[in-house]
Amino acid sequence: MAIGIFIRFPEGAGAPEYDAVSAKLNIANNPPDGLILHAAGELEGAYQLFKTFQIFNLWESREHADRFNRERLQPARLEVMGENRAAAIEAWTVEVEIHNYVIP
């Protein structure tokens, strides 16, 4: 079953940290197995007290997401952001079982 993962950065972290981690991952040239969609950007709205950077990944399965997180994402995050900030991102991660998706 497909899974969606929303990742919200802690206050004070944003596009610069995302770009640094992304450069290490090189997903455009080396996409992870099972990744269907990746999107990232800053969220701002009336209910927000501050701007926050968020990522959404759509995966073929939880196993694909877990393997990528364990083998590639966590090591890159720790290197760029350090243990405390990497842990803060994990605390703001939400997983959703996807009922349906369409990519035209």
Structure description:
The protein is an alpha+beta fold and 104 residues long. The chain has a single domain (3-97), classed as Alpha-Beta Plaits (2-Layer Sandwich). It is built from 2 helices and 4 strands; from the N terminus they run E-H-E-E-H-E. A 4-stranded antiparallel beta sheet has the order 2-3-1-4, covered by helices on one side. A hairpin with an 8-residue loop joins strand 2 and strand 3. The radius of gyration is 14 Å and the shape is globular.
| Category from helices, strands and their pairing | alpha+beta
Q: Class in CATH?
A: Alpha Beta
Low-confidence stretches: none
Gross morphology is: globular
**Count of discrete structural domains:** 1
Radius of gyration: 14 Å
CATH architectural label: 2-Layer Sandwich
Key structural traits:
104 residues; alpha+beta; Alpha-Beta Plaits; globular
Short description:
By secondary structure, the protein is of the alpha+beta class.
SSE map:
Elements: E1 3-8, H1 15-25, E2 35-43, E3 52-59, H2 62-91, E4 93-97
Antiparallel strand pairs: 1-3, 1-4, 2-3
